[in-house]
């Protein structure tokens, strides 16, 4: 069975990783990896190298990123569809199933280009809601285009049923990325320091803040508010993983880079890789930002998360999530509150009933 897996960024690759390993090692499958989006962007860490370093063969490598203005995003979508048209023409009759994940505009464009070729599609992480991002529309559109659905919670499975109008081929397997916690050897504080030159024995806040793509005009204001917060956190080490290639993201990137150049307690990292990122999550004091990894994975590390703004608004969240508006004094007050809470002791609502990759593999083998 030939499976074409679409990966456009470090974020979806980290989620895919447990499944990619299983697909690669199982002789039943012929794994075809297609990279595009920020994987081939030097400004975003050229993360295609991470895939190669993990021992995977890349069958197609497409350059599709143009910039971060609304016009750039629209033109990137058009370019992505144009670049994928000959890929799907070549793969028609060879690929048995396309696997896509999430909600990115470039993922939507890549999958849309496959529709005229009638190649079956499986979608991971459908049914979720993020009202503060245009990605919300792309995710739901991907669910409508897909033939098979692997959701992360029962409520998300219910949403997919509402979107597609039927209950067939919807599988609530849990969040795939959580398999990484069982399969990846995380770094100790000493090993992390040796590899990244960052000392996580210092009280550390792990920050990932992506542009808000609905109210994107306010991203400059948000960047300034966060800058003021980070400057005030002299009792912490602030480790910032850089944002996605979203609308007006360069404004946030520039602000964070300038901060790191000026303040020793602020560190920016383009790409930790899966092992590095989860190791940082394990050893940090808490998370701050607006990334889905805070919503989905942080609870498994017993970490509280200050979730900023509306980007993740509407997504199912556990009791470790503290929603906060993007305003300096409010964020600083929330940080004081977190210091009194200690370690999170609740469960992770995204934890399914077993290894997610194993469940997906078993289901794929039953597809005719």
Order of helices and strands: EHEHEHEHEHEHEHHEHEHEHEHEEHH
Instruction: Write down the CATH class of the largest domain.
Output: Alpha Beta
Mean pLDDT: 92
Regarding quaternary structure, what we see is: single chain
The gross shape turns out to be: globular
Could you tell me the number of beta strands?
13
Report the major sheet. Answer: 7 strands, parallel
Gyration radius over CA: 20 Å
Helix/strand-derived category reads: alpha/beta
Q: Any low-confidence stretches, pLDDT <50, length ≥5?
A: none
Tally of structural domains: 2
Strand percentage = 15-25%
> Alpha-carbon distance between the termini?
10 Å
Q: Fill in the CATH topology of the largest domain.
A: Rossmann fold
CATH superfamily membership of the largest domain: Glycogen Phosphorylase B
Supply the number of helical segments. 14
Short description:
With 368 residues, the protein is an alpha/beta fold. Helix content is 41%, strand content 16%. Helix 4 (105-112) runs parallel beside helix 5 (135-145).
Ordered list of secondary-structure elements with their pairings:
Blueprint: E1 2-7, H1 10-25, E2 30-35, H2 48-53, E3 58-61, H3 70-91, E4 97-101, H4 105-112, E5 121-124, H5 135-145, E6 148-151, H6 154-164, E7 170-172, H7 180-183, H8 189-196, E8 204-208, H9 219-232, E9 237-241, H10 249-262, E10 266-269, H11 273-283, E11 286-289, H12 292-296, E12 305-308, E13 321-324, H13 328-339, H14 356-364
Parallel strand pairs: 1-2, 1-4, 2-3, 4-5, 5-6, 6-7, 8-9, 8-11, 9-10, 11-12, 12-13
Helix pairs in contact: 1-14, 3-4, 4-5, 9-10, 9-13
């Amino acid at each position: 069975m030939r499976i074409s897996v679409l990966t456009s960024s470090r974020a979806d690759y980290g989620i895919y990783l447990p499944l990619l390993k299983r697909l690669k090692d199982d002789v039943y499958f012929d794994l075809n990896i297609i990279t595009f989006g920020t994987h081939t962007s030097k400004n975003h860490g050229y993360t295609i190298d991470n895939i190669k370093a993990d021992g995977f063969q890349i069958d197609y490598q497409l350059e599709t990123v143009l910039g971060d203005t609304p016009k750039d995003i629209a033109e990137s979508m058009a370019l992505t569809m144009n670049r994928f048209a000959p890929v799907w023409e070549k793969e028609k009759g060879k690929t048995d199933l396309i696997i896509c994940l999430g909600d990115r505009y470039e993922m939507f464009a890549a999958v849309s280009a496959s529709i005229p070729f009638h190649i079956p599609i499986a979608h991971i992480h459908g049914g979720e809601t993020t009202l503060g991002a245009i990605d919300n529309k792309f995710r739901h559109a991907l669910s409508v285009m897909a033939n098979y659905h692997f959701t992360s919670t029962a409520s998300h499975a219910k949403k997919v049923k509402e979107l597609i109008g039927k209950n067939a081929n919807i599988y609530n397997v849990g969040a795939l990325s959580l398999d990484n916690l069982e399969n990846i050897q995380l770094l100790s504080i000493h090993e992390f320091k040796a590899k990244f030159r960052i000392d996580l024995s210092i009280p550390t806040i792990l920050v990932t803040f992506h542009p808000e793509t609905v109210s994107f005009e306010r991203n400059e204001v948000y960047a300034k508010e966060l800058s003021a917060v980070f400057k005030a956190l002299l009792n912490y080490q602030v480790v910032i993983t850089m944002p996605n290639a979203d609308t007006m993201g360069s404004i946030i990137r520039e602000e964070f880079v300038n901060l790191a150049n000026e303040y020793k307690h602020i560190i920016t990292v383009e790409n930790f890789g899966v092992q590095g990122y989860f190791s940082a999550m394990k050893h940090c004091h808490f998370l701050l930002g607006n990334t889905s990894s805070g919503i989905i994975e942080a609870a498994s590390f017993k970490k509280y998360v200050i979730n900023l703004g509306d980007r993740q608004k509407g997504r199912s969240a556990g009791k470790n999530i503290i929603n906060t508006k993007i305003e300096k004094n409010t964020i600083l007050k929330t940080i004081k509150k977190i210091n009194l809470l200690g370690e999170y002791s609740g469960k992770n609502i995204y934890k399914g009933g077993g290894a997610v990759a194993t469940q997906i593999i078993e289901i794929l083998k039953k597809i005719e």
